[in-house]
Design brief:
A hairpin with a 2-residue loop joins strand 1 (81-82) and strand 2 (85-86). This protein has 7 helices and 2 strands, in the order αααααββαα. It has one domain: Helicase, Ruva Protein, domain 3. It has helices at residues 5-13, 16-29, 34-45, 49-57, 62-67, 93-109, 114-117, and strands at 81-82, 85-86. This is DUF2200 domain-containing protein.
Length: 122
């Protein structure tokens, strides 16, 4: 699926620190914890709490956030529709990676079991 260059640029230039509080609110509102959110983010990106906080403090863009990340080898198993796009069909790597994170946050907020979110169970 082709996203528009404007859409890709908008995602690339979004500041992660401006979106992060929305992730926290979304999961906490549904009874999940910030710690669980961090576990999901660490699984996807390799960022522990300290590095995550550094990136938030530096107000990095999503482009920088994902450029510095070490994506989990099972990230490609994240499938489904988010924001009207089928994740596995998104051609732009950065946009796909940002939607991976959105999908994981959604699954966490919907009460999915952690081992399923982290693509560990078969």
């Amino acid at each position: 699926m082709t996203t528009t260059p404007e859409h890709d640029a908008r995602i690339a230039n979004m500041i992660f620190a401006s979106v992060y509080p929305h992730y926290v609110n979304k999961v906490e509102k549904k009874g999940r914890t910030k710690e669980e959110l961090h576990q999901v983010i660490e699984w996807l990106t390799g960022y522990g709490d300290k590095k995550l906080q550094e990136l938030i403090d530096q107000k990095v863009t999503f482009e920088t956030f994902f450029a510095k990340a070490t994506l989990h080898p099972n990230a490609h198993l994240i499938k489904g529709v988010i924001c009207g796009y089928r994740i596995e069909d998104i051609e732009t790597p950065l946009t796909r990676e940002a939607r991976y994170l959105d999908k994981l946050v959604d699954e966490l907020a919907k009460g999915r079991k952690m081992e399923k979110i982290l693509r560990q169970a078969t």
